[in-house]
Amino acid sequence: MVTGSTGSYTVLARRFRPQGFADVVGQEHVAQALRNAILANRVAHAYLFTGARGVGKTSTARILAKALNCPKSVDANPCNDCEICDGIAAGNDVDVLEIDGASNRGIDDIRQLRANVNVKSMRTQYKLYIIDEVHMLTKEAFNALLKTLEEPPPNVKFVFCTTEPNKVPDTILSRCQRFDFGTIETSNIKARLAHIAEAEGVEVADEALELVARRAAGSMRDSQSIFDQLLAFGEENISAVDVHRLLGTASDDRLIDIGQALVDRDKAKSIDSFHAALDGGVQLGELTDQLLFYLRDLMILASGAASVGLLSVAPVSRELLQKQAETWGLQSIVAAMQILSDAKGRMQRVTYGRALAELALIRIAMLEDLSNISDLIDKLRTGEPISANQTAAQPAAEKKNDVASVDAEPAVAQPAESIAEVVAEPGNESSILAEASVENVTEPASSESSTDESPTDHVSVIETVESPVRIVSASSMDAERQVAAASSEADGSAVGEGSEVAVSSEQAAATNVGDEVPADDEVKLADGDVDDRGSVPSLDSGTPSGSATAVLEAPAAIAVESDGPSVDESEIAQPAAAGTTGVAPEIRFAAENSTAIWAKVVPEISDMLKSHVKSVSSTAISAPNKLELTLPPKYHFGKTYLEKPEAQSRLQKIIARLTGVEPRITIVLGEAGASGGKAASAETGIKQTKRVFKPEEDELVCSVVEVFDAQVVRISPMSGGTGDSE
Q1: Nearest to 270 by CA among 286, 287, 285
Q2: What percent of the chain has pLDDT above 70?
Q3: Which pLDDT score, from 0 to 100, does residue 571 have?
Q4: What is the SS3 string spanning 580-618?
Q5: Which of 148, 176, 267, 702 is the most exposed place for a label (fewest CB within 10 A)?
Q6: What is the pLDDT of residue 531?
Q7: Which has the closest alpha carbon to 580: 502, 666, 501, 659?
Q8: Which CATH class is domain 591-684?
Q9: Is the dihedral of CA 441, 447, 448, 453 positive or negative?
Q10: Phi, psi (5° rounding) for residue 426?
Q11: pLDDT tens profile 648-659
């Protein structure tokens, strides 16, 4: 419609703005509350209208102003014919002031408002201040408005409109009656657009109205703006094709084709349909949004929410989408939606958005039915067997720490007579492993199967610092559990439980394949028998697979577990006692030796830890493996430092090397009045020497003197020191 002498055009959103409470679409709860307040003479002095854009906040504020001031209002409805109604509707009434909060947001604007509040209205009963986008006011402006808002003149009303109520201070919110405007239903928007089309004399297809209403996403003003653009774009008859051409969106048929290809996991068809839509003029961003809403509709249908409307396609396609949702499954739909939403978020920040969208489609098409995962989990919990087609192929065993294993038949029961043979291979020192430990030895195979297989079916090689040791099993073993048991040279103790093959360090050092060992040095075999010949037969001597042979060249004891018959504990090599190192101690760890032990520990330390160690006033051994260190009463920092794990570990290692016992160290502070660190040092036998500071020997002092041309005037000891320097 062209209005005025200038021939300017007034857009639909302004020409079809609601003029009464009955015209406000989708906000009936607000309209009823305001009408009743006017009829009951309970109109508040301040209102806060919140909601999304284009849902009628400002229009309702104007209707409220007209209803309060119209002299011809009936049942709280303005007449819209008088001068006052026309002036308020046009926005030029002197007593109804509309203020843009984004432009007039400073404290000076609010001061001017406060100065005009007390001025009586010119021709109306009430003076109204409508502040749009009130959340844009500054903090100072809000504070300046507080007192006026709390106690305004009796003829002044405030109406605040905002899309972000969370940015409005609580002090303002508490002084207003708040009304929340919700988004408008698609059906209500469609009906309003049909009314506008009839008023404009234009034929619009029902599908076109549906598309525009869905695109508005609950905003009446947005729908009217799009519809206004559509009327200018099309001719007298407007169809759904015109809407898609205008908005750059894909038709419902294209969306359904892409969705069906994804459900069928047809990667080629999904990409072809996607490219066909883009080549047909569909915008990439719009198509991605449509696919997201399409997946949303599938998710809603798969969830069983039958009453929720569709956002991507017309309601006539609901049955087809229902079938797709049932075929695909809820979990797959959720995963596909997550993939596409992540791609959409990344597309906004890069220039290769099309490639990301195609990648997302391929990933979605490659999704397997994720609903089977729950079935697999249930089977694993119940212990049911899982067929090969339900699980992925297991990767081959990887080599770790230079331990190689050869797979064979699954492990079955076997008597203890057939256990591992330990064979040394001299000359293979190419690979070095600092510590070799073996655990979780597998169950050996049955005796029946061992007689049919070679003794060297499975080989596990463990390389130590001294020489590599090869453990050869006499039967098939499970590759995932085949690991031999060997301890490091440091502790020299057998590792593992069950049957063991144990050889002392002296025997191992002097024993080669087929060599004799002294008769008084017994070699304990897995079955509990001792070789009465005093020798260890070699592998080449034709030893049956049911017996066991042990030959070592490494200076460490080897232990191999077996689930066979039990062995007499007296014939099994016992591990070293807990807390010991297996090395002959220099001094016995006993209470009477606590002072002597500590006197040997202090010289072993040369860094920052030494200053705290020298502060120890007394030591005591209160348990078989507990060492208690006492510091002077005020040495809290030293106590904290010595309690650190790294400090404790260093002290434990030193004490273990000296005494053969790795103690548990506790740090305590002495009682007030006890002897200080120097007296205690003399008591413990630790010699403390005073270090005279010489500035000419200190690099830092020399550098300062040289740079600043200075000279040393005075040397003062540091306060709180340990007493070992001046």
Answers
A1: 287
A2: 66
A3: 38
A4: ECCCCCCCCCCHHHHHHHHHHHHHHCCCCHHHHHCCCCE
A5: 702
A6: 43
A7: 659
A8: alpha beta
A9: positive
A10: -70, 150
A11: 888 888 888 888
Q: What pLDDT does residue 589 have?
A: 83
Tokens in use for 96?
A: 């109804």
Higher pLDDT, 240 or 504: 240
As a whole number of angstroms, the distance between CA 360 and CA 125 comes to 62
CATH architecture of 11-182: 3-Layer(aba) Sandwich (3.40)
Q: Are strands 203-204 and 127-132 parallel, antiparallel or unpaired?
A: unpaired
Name the residue type at position 185: E
Q: CA nearest 179: which of 41, 53, 64, 47? A: 47
504: Cα separation from own chain's centroid? 52
Evaluate whether 50 touches 178 at the Cβ level (below 8 Å). Answer: yes
Mean pLDDT over 74-85 rounds to 90
User: What residue ranges do the domains of the chain occupy?
Assistant: 11-182, 184-247, 272-385, 420-576, 591-684
Instruction: In whole angstroms, give the CA distance from residue 423 to residue 450.
Output: 19
pTM given for the model: 0.52
CA distance 56 to 59: 5
Beta bridge partners of 516: 535
The DSSP code sequence of 418-463 is S--EEEE-TT--SS--S------PPPPPPHHHHTTS-TTSEEEEEE
Spatial distance between the Cα atoms of 205 and 213, rounded to a whole number of angstroms: 13
Decide if 152 contacts 158 (C-beta within 8 A).
Answer: yes
- C-alpha to C-alpha distance for 428 and 435, rounded to whole angstroms: 16
Give 654's contacts (C-beta < 8 A, 6+ positions apart): 601, 604, 605
pLDDT of residue 196: 92
Residue 684 vs residue 334, higher pLDDT: 334
Do residues 524 and 572 lie in contact, with contact meaning Cβ atoms separated by under 8 Å? yes
d(CA 355, CA 343): 10
Q: Which amino acid is at 649?
A: S
- As a whole number, mean pLDDT of residues 373-379 equals 70
130 near 61, Cβ under 8 Å? yes
For residue 387, what pLDDT is reported?
Answer: 60
Give the pairing type, strands 8-9 and 2-3: antiparallel
Outline where DSSP puts E strands in 511-580: 558-559
For the domain made up of 272-385, give the CATH fold.
Zinc Finger, Delta Prime; domain 3 (1.20.272)
Tell the residue number behind the tokens 């303005």, with chain if given.
Answer: 78
520: exposed, middle or buried (Cβ count in 10 Å: 0-12, 13-18, 19+): exposed
Where does residue 393 rank: exposed (0-12), middle (13-18), buried (19+ CB within 10 A)?
exposed
Q: Hey, which residues does 468 pair with through a beta bridge?
A: 463
Per-residue pLDDT tens over the stretch 346-375: 998 899 999 999 999 999 998 875 556 666
Q: In whole angstroms, what is the distance from residue 720 CA to residue 306 CA? A: 78
**CB 507, CB 534: distance < 8 Å:** no
More confident residue, 71 or 497: 71
CATH among 2.60.40.10, 3.40.50.300, 1.10.8.60, 3.40.50.1000 for 184-247: 1.10.8.60
Whole-angstrom Cα distance, residue 167 to residue 134?
Answer: 9
